[in-house]
Specification:
Blueprint: H1 2-25, E1 39-40, E2 47-48, E3 56-60, H2 61-66, E4 82-86, E5 92-96, E6 112-116, E7 119-121, H3 124-129, E8 135-142, E9 156-162, E10 171-179, E11 183-195, E12 198-209, E13 220-234, E14 237-250, E15 255-262, E16 265-268, H4 283-289, E17 293-294, E18 299-300, E19 309-324, E20 329-345, E21 353-372, E22 375-394, E23 399-421, E24 426-452, H5 489-498, E25 514-516, E26 522-551, E27 554-565, E28 568-569, E29 577-578, E30 581-594, E31 599-611, E32 614-620, E33 626-632, E34 636-650, E35 653-666, E36 670-673, E37 684-690, E38 696-701, E39 713-724, E40 729-740, E41 743-744, E42 754-755, E43 758-769, E44 774-781, E45 793-794, E46 799-803, E47 809-817
Parallel strand pairs: 6-9
Antiparallel strand pairs: 1-2, 3-8, 4-5, 6-7, 8-9, 10-11, 10-47, 11-12, 12-13, 13-14, 14-19, 15-16, 15-46, 17-18, 19-20, 20-21, 21-22, 22-23, 23-24, 24-26, 25-26, 26-27, 27-30, 28-29, 30-31, 31-34, 32-33, 34-35, 35-39, 36-38, 37-38, 39-40, 40-43, 41-42, 43-44, 44-47, 45-46
C-alpha cells in the first residue's frame, strides 16, 4: 500500500506540476549565463540531452576531468544509478538500478551493454579495463535499450565516446597529475590538419598508482593509445577510421578477510585484519588464514602460495562511414576487437585462482535515418561474431577445479523505429527489434578433491569448522596434500604421485577415480564433467512511447520498452545451460528548463518487471563438487523515481543534485546447494536429495529480499563557483558528495554482505586562464577517508571476504592546450 502510494504521488506530481510550472514560467531563451547543453547521440542522432526523451546521465569532457573520472569505476561520482563489483582480475560487473550479474567467468554475458566509439562490446572487461582519456563524453542510459542497442541491454547502456578529429585545426593538449600512493597520470592528444577535408587525431595515456592494500593489491598500471583519421571527400560523405590499444598490468583488485564461518555461525575477523587495508597476502592475513579448516579435507589452510598478478591487452580497429542520401543518412560501422591475457587472483580466498585466455569479436551495424513527411525513421541491421578460449583453475587447497573451454556466439538483428510527428508538439514513437543468438561452448571441468576419511562422508560431518573424531588426524601437518597451482588434471595427478601422496601406478584413465592417500588419512576423488552445449535463442523486443512538448523548454514523455538477454551454455557440472532473461520497463518522465535556462529539472518514475533473471552463485552439483554457475530465477520488480536538478543563480555559480529512490524485491528467488556451501541467510528446507558424498541438498527461499546493488536512496550533490582574479585569470572551486544507502552485495544475504550506507565527498580548486588554455588544480577524493565494501562474498573455503572502494586520495593536476 505504502509503495503504491509513493509511486502514485511521484507520477501524479510529474504529470500535473510540470505543466503548471511551465505555464507560469513560459518559454524563455537561454541567457548568456545559462546551463550549457550536452549534445548526446543516445538515440542514434545528435540532440541536446534535454530533448532526448529517455533517462540519461551524460558526462562531458570537462566534468570528466574536474571529477577525476579516469575509468568506468569512477562513474559512480556522476551517475547515482550505477554500481560495480570486482571479484578479481579483470572480471568486473556493472549494475544499473539493481540489474546486473556478478561476473566470475569469461563466458557470462553482461546485463549492461557497453559500447566504445559506437561499437558494442560483448565482454564487460573491455570497457572496465579501458582508460577514460581524450573523450568527448560518456553516456549512461538507464533502463532497457531493446531497440537501438538490442541484446544484453536489459538494464541499460554505457556509451564511451572519444573526441574525434577536427577539420581545419592543428593543435594539441596535455594533462599531468601526481598524488599520494605514487599516483601518476599523463595523457595528451595531437590533432593535425592533413588537408582541407581530412584530419588525424592521435592520443595516448598512462596511469599508475601503488596498491591501496598493505599486500600491494588494488594497484594500477595502465597505458593506452588511440589514432583516428577523418576524411570528408564530398559534402555528403565522411569516413573515419580508428584504432586503439590498452595494456593493463599489476596485481589488480585485492580482497580482504572480514570473518569466517564455523558451520552456520559467522565469526568476525580481528579488527586489525578487517580494517579495509590488509589484503590477503600479508603475514598477519596468512596467520589468520591458518586458523580455518578447509573442507572436505579438514586440514588447516596454508599461507597464500603466490602474489596476485594480471596482464591484459585490449585492442581494436573500427570505422564509421556516413553518407547523406535521398532517403536519409546512411551509417555503416564495421569493427574488430580482441583481448587476451591472464590473471592470478586470490579473490574469495583462493590460493590462488588463475584465469587466462583470449576473445575476439567482429561486428558491423548498418542503419538509415531519415524523414518522410511527418514520419522520422531509423532502420538497420546488426551482426556479431565472437569466439573465446579460456583456461582457469580455482585452487581451494583441498579442491582443485580446472576448466578449459572454447565458446562461440553469432548474433544478428534487424531493427526499426518510427516517430510520428502528430503535431508540432506531440509525437508517438514505436520500435521493433528481432534478435537471434546462436551459441556454442565446448569444454569441461576436472576436479581433484581431497576427502578426510572416505566416501560417503559420515565423520567428520560436511560442514566447515565442525570436525568429528575421524577428522582430528587430518589437521596434522603432512597428513593431507594441499594442491599447488596446476592448470590441468594431469599435472595435479603427476604431483600427487611425485610427492608420494598416492600410489605410483595411479593413472588418469583408471576406472575407479578414487585414489587412497598413502598416509591413510583419506582419499582423493577425481571428478570429471564435460560441458558441451549449443543452441539458439531469439526474441522480438518492442517499444512504445509518447512525447509532448508542453513548451519549447518543457518535455513530457511516457515509454514502455522491453529488453532481452540471451541464454547460454557454461562449463559447469551443476547447470550446463540457462534460459534468456526478459524485462519490461514502464517510464514516465519530464525534462524542463526554467528562468532563462538557469534552472534545469528532470523527473522520472519507473516500474520494471524482471523475469527469469540470470544470476551467478556458488552451488553444489549432484556429485558434491563446488560450481559457480549462471542460473535463472523467478520474477522481481524494480520501482522508483529520479530527480535531477541544476540551478545556476549566476554565471559564476552552479549547483546540482541527483536523487534516486529504488524499491526492489525478488518475488521468487529459490537457491539450491549443499553443505559446506550452505551459508545462505534465508529460510531453508531439505529437499530429501543427497549428493554422491552423502551431503543433503538444501533449498533456500530468499524471496522478498532486495536485488543486489540497489540502494534505496542515492544522492549526488555538487557545487561550483568561479572567482575572477583578473581579466584573464580565474579561480574555480568545486565540491561534490555522494550518499549511498545500504545495499546488498551478495545472494547469501549474510549480514556482512549488507554494504553500509556511506558518504563519499571530494573537492577541487583550480586556477586557470579564462580561455581555458591552461590550468593547475589541487584535488582530494573520499574526504571521509573510510573504505567501503565493494564486493562482499561468502568464500568457498569458509571465509567472509570483500573488496573495497578506494581510500582518501589527493594530489595536483595541470594541463594545457596549444
Amino acid at each position: 500500500m505504502r509503495k503504491g502510494l509513493l509511486m502514485g504521488v511521484a507520477l501524479g506530481a510529474m504529470v500535473q506540476a510540470v505543466p503548471a510550472i511551465a505555464q507560469e514560467q513560459g518559454a524563455e531563451e537561454a541567457s548568456a549565463g545559462g546551463i550549457d547543453a550536452i549534445i548526446v547521440t543516445a538515440r542514434r542522432q545528435a540532440e541536446s540531452s534535454q530533448d532526448a526523451a529517455l533517462a540519461i546521465d551524460a558526462i562531458g569532457a570537462d566534468a570528466l576531468v574536474e571529477q577525476g573520472i579516469t575509468d568506468a569505476l569512477d562513474l559512480t561520482k556522476a551517475a547515482p544509478s550505477i554500481s560495480f563489483a570486482n571479484g578479481g582480475g579483470a572480471l568486473t560487473s556493472i549494475f544499473l538500478r539493481g540489474v546486473g550479474t556478478v561476473t566470475t567467468n569469461a563466458y557470462a554475458d553482461a546485463a549492461i551493454t557497453a559500447s566504445y566509439d559506437g561499437v558494442v562490446l560483448s565482454r564487460q572487461d573491455g570497457v572496465v579495463g579501458a582508460a577514460f582519456y581524450d573523450l568527448e563524453r560518456v553516456e549512461v542510459l538507464k533502463g532497457p535499450q531493446g531497440i537501438l542497442y538490442g541484446r544484453n541491454a536489459t538494464g541499460g547502456t554505457v556509451n564511451i565516446i572519444p573526441a574525434r578529429p577536427e577539420l581545419g585545426y592543428t593543435g594539441g593538449g596535455v594533462n599531468f597529475g601526481y598524488g599520494n600512493y605514487n599516483d601518476v597520470s599523463l595523457d595528451g592528444f595531437v590533432n593535425l590538419e592533413v588537408s582541407d577535408n581530412s584530419a588525424l587525431r592521435v592520443s595516448g595515456m598512462h596511469q599508475s598508482h601503488d596498491g591501496y592494500n598493505r599486500d600491494g593489491t588494488d594497484d594500477l598500471s595502465r597505458s593506452g593509445f588511440r589514432a583516428q583519421f577523418l576524411i570528408e571527400p564530398t559534402d555528403t560523405v565522411s569516413v573515419r577510421i580508428a584504432g586503439d590499444w590498452t595494456g593493463l598490468t599489476g596485481k589488480g583488485a585485492g580482497a580482504g578477510y572480514v570473518g569466517r564461518f564455523q558451520g552456520q555461525t559467522y565469526i568476525p575477523a580481528p579488527a586489525a585484519i578487517a580494517d579495509g587495508f590488509e589484503g590477503m597476502g600479508t603475514d598477519a592475513a596468512n596467520a589468520y588464514r591458518g586458523t580455518v579448516l578447509g573442507a572436505p579435507g579438514f586440514g588447516f589452510l596454508n599461507p597464500l602460495g603466490r602474489e596476485q598478478e594480471l596482464d591484459f591487452t585490449f585492442w581494436g580497429v573500427n570505422a564509421e562511414v556516413n553518407i547523406e542520401t535521398g532517403l536519409g543518412d546512411l551509417t555503416f560501422i564495421p569493427a574488430y576487437r580482441e583481448n587476451d591475457g591472464y590473471s592470478y587472483f586470490n579473490g574469495p580466498a583462493f590460493n590462488p585462482a588463475f584465469s587466462g585466455g583470449s576473445a575476439s569479436q567482429f561486428s558491423s551495424e548498418l542503419r538509415l535515418a531519415g524523414s518522410s513527411g511527418p514520419i522520422d525513421y531509423i532502420v538497420g541491421g546488426f551482426y556479431l561474431k565472437e569466439e573465446y578460449d579460456n583456461i582457469g583453475q580455482y585452487n581451494q587447497e583441498f579442491v582443485l577445479p580446472t576448466l578449459n573451454y572454447h565458446g562461440e556466439t553469432e548474433s544478428w538483428a534487424a531493427f526499426g523505429q518510427l516517430t510520428a510527428n502528430i503535431t508540432d508538439q506531440f509525437r508517438l514513437v514505436g520500435g521493433l527489434r528481432y534478435t537471434r543468438d546462436n551459441k556454442l561452448i565446448a569444454g569441461g571441468i576436472n576436479n581433484l578433491i581431497t576427502f578426510c576419511g572416505g566416501i560417503p562422508l559420515t565423520t567428520p560431518p560436511a560442514s566447515f569448522g565442525v570436525v568429528g573424531t575421524a577428522g582430528v588426524g587430518c589437521q596434522a601437518p603432512g597428513n593431507l596434500p594441499h594442491y599447488p597451482d596446476f592448470n590441468t588434471i594431469e599435472e595435479g595427478l603427476d604431483w600427487l604421485i611425485a610427492e608420494g601422496w598416492i600410489d605410483p601406478g595411479s593413472t588418469i584413465d583408471q576406472p575407479n577415480p578414487v585414489y587412497p592417500l598413502l598416509t591413510g588419512a583419506g582419499v582423493v576423488l577425481r571428478d570429471v564433467s564435460v560441458a558441451n552445449g549449443s543452441g539458439g535463442f531469439d526474441r522480438l523486443t518492442w517499444k512504445v512511447s509518447a512525447e509532448y512538448d508542453v513548451t519549447p523548454d518543457n518535455l513530457l514523455y511516457a515509454t514502455v520498452e522491453t529488453g532481452y538477454r540471451a541464454g547460454g551454455f557454461q562449463a559447469s557440472s551443476a547447470v550446463i545451460d540457462y534460459d534468456p532473461e526478459f524485462i519490461t520497463a514502464y517510464t514516465i518522465g519530464s525534462k524542463n528548463q526554467f528562468a532563462g535556462n538557469t534552472i534545469q529539472l528532470n523527473l522520472e518514475a519507473f516500474w520494471w518487471k524482471y523475469r527469469d533473471q540470470q544470476i551467478n552463485f556458488f552451488t553444489v552439483s549432484d556429485t558434491g563438487v563446488l560450481s559457480n554457475v549462471i542460473d535463472n530465477v523467478g520474477r522481481s520488480q524494480i520501482r522508483g523515481f529520479d530527480v535531477d536538478a541544476i540551478f545556476k543563480p549566476s554565471w559564476a555559480t552552479t549547483l546540482s543534485a541527483k536523487v534516486q529512490f529504488l524499491d526492489t524485491e525478488y518475488d521468487d528467488l529459490l537457491l539450491r546447494t549443499a553443505p559446506p556451501r550452505d551459508n545462505f541467510n534465508c529460510p531453508r528446507s531439505n529437499t530429501g536429495e543427497t549428493t554422491t558424498d552423502g551431503s543433503p541438498i538444501i533449498e533456500f527461499d530468499c524471496s522478498g529480499n532486495p536485488l543486489l546493488y540497489a540502494p534505496k536512496w542515492t544522492v549526488n550533490l555538487s557545487a561550483e563557483h568561479i572567482v575572477p582574479l583578473s581579466e584573464n585569470l580565474e579561480l574555480v572551486g568545486t565540491v561534490y558528495t555522494a550518499w549511498r544507502d545500504e545495499q546488498w552485495g551478495g545472494f547469501n544475504y549474510q549480514p556482512f554482505q549488507l554494504i553500509p550506507a556511506n558518504w563519499n565527498s571530494g573537492a577541487n580548486l583550480t586556477l586557470r586562464n579564462a580561455e581555458d588554455d591552461w590550468y593547475i588544480s589541487a584535488y582530494v577524493t573520499n574526504i571521509e577517508g573510510g573504505r567501503n565494501f565493494s564486493f562482499p562474498q561468502v568464500a568457498p573455503v569458509g571465509f567472509a571476504t570483500t573488496t573495497y572502494t578506494a581510500p582518501r586520495t589527493y594530489g595536483v593536476r595541470l594541463g594545457a592546450t596549444f
